[in-house]
Write a structure and sequence with these properties.
Strand content: under 5%
CATH topology of the largest domain: Four Helix Bundle (Hemerythrin (Met), subunit A)
Number of strands: 0
CATH superfamily of the largest domain: Voltage-gated potassium channels. Chain C
Largest sheet: none
Helix content: over 70%
Length: about 280
Amino acid sequence: MSPARLTAHSAGSLPQGSYLSARRRMREILAHSKANDIVSKVVDTFIVGLILLNVVAMIVESVERVHSLVPTWFKTFELFSVVIFSAEYALRLWSCVEDPQYAGPVLGRVRFALSPLAVVDALAVLPFYLPFFSVDLRVLRMFRLFRIMRIMRIAKLARYSDSLQMLLRVVKSRKEQLLSAVFILLILLVVAASLMYYAEHDAQPKVFSSIPAAMWWAAATLTTVGYGDAYPITAIGKIMASIIAMLGIGMFALPTGILGAAFLEDLDRNKKSQTCPHCGKEIAG
């Protein structure tokens, strides 16, 4: 290759190289911050602070007297937050292909967009954009209900919290056992509601009017909450209610034990990963 052509080829590759370097660097910044990456730490701190301020703003905004004093401030802050969160989502979607599990310009980004944390990021800004796609005023009023989805912004903290990430790992590792426990609990809920309906319907036709209505009592009893708005008055109903309440205590101890064991395993695994396999000494982070 001639020197002139070599020079032209090198010059032509510079923009592509710069583009890839910028994308790789953006991925490093938006990923979980490293100890020596100041820029990534600053970005993480800013995003976490903005998330917390959004939660505080949503809570304070619900107080009518406060909202009426500074309504413009809340709208301006909401717009600022949406711009930042939208830019963050777009940059994550752009740079995600630098991660091997999301390799591929199209399919990789689709896999990333469908990942749990990316879905949370999308839901955090979705309520702001939904009204712009509505032309029917009735649909627009319905979309206002989606504003409660702004609470999803607090779920974005899972990216920046080791504790929340550990919780997600634990739930994911024990999802089969937890689903089995939930399935058993649902069966117990249906059985308890059915028994209580047949035991109490004649004595309290309004309170236990149907099996679905009795499910409210069964759920409150199995969770040991017992609101007191529905309770048995017959002898057989009281006996069954006592048995069901005790079963509820045992049923909720089951997922507690599953999660507790999984937490201990995860903590032990992390501790082992931070020690040298040869000398057994702790490895500095």
